[in-house]
Amino acid sequence: MTRVSSTDWRLLALARALLAVASLAACAPAPAAPASGKPPAAVTLTPEPTAPVADQDVTLKIRLADADAKGVPGAKVKVSATHTEMAHGSLEADASDAGSGDYVAKLKPNMAGTWKLTVTAQGGGATKRADFELQVR
């Protein structure tokens, strides 16, 4: 009969632990797409519908482009909205990355009038802010 030393048992336990860690790592979600490395130089925003109505969702399509007019993927994009005529606080939304420098956010303006939208994009080691007006019926 073969004798197993306590060192052999420790090595076997260590091998099993490493195998368990490797198995868990294989099940981890894929990392997010890397940012392009270039900071956003331009921000455009297109609301849908183009004439939003109070108390209804509006989809905000946001495009980030670098100085070469190429899309900037992988940025962290936030939108805040404040009514310019009334002090009712602000609405905020995180935009989701739709790929190739396109982002989508949803807001639900709770009253008609002019809203100031501020888009803040962090990517490529820089932060870009852009302000837009949104007329809500």
What would you note in describing this structure?
By secondary structure, the chain is of the alpha+beta class. The chain has a domain at 42-136: Sandwich (Immunoglobulin-like). Helix content is 15%, strand content 44%. The protein contains one helix and eight strands. It has one helix at 6-26, and strands at residues 42-48, 58-65, 76-83, 90-94, 96-99, 102-107, 113-123, 126-136. The chain has a four-stranded antiparallel β-sheet with strand order 1-2-6-5, with no helix packed on it. Strand 7 and strand 8 form a beta hairpin. It is elongated, with a radius of gyration of 24 Å. The N and C termini lie far apart (87 Å).
Provide mean pLDDT, rounded: 84
- What's the CATH topology name of the domain at 42-136? Immunoglobulin-like
Q: Given the helix and strand composition, which structural class is it?
A: alpha+beta
- Give unreliable regions as ranges: 28-35
Widest beta sheet: strand line-up? 1-2-6-5
Looking at CATH, the homologous superfamily of the domain at 42-136 is Immunoglobulins
Largest sheet: 4 strands, antiparallel
Please trace the helix and strand order, writing H or E for each element: HEEEEEEEE
**Can you identify the CATH class of the domain at 42-136?**
Mainly Beta
CATH architecture of the domain at 42-136: Sandwich
Kindly report how far apart the N and C termini lie: 87 Å
Number of helices: 1
The helix content is: 10-25%
What is the gyration radius calculated from CA atoms? Answer: 24 Å
Strand elements, count: 8
Q: Please tell me what the overall shape is.
A: elongated
Strand content: 35-45%
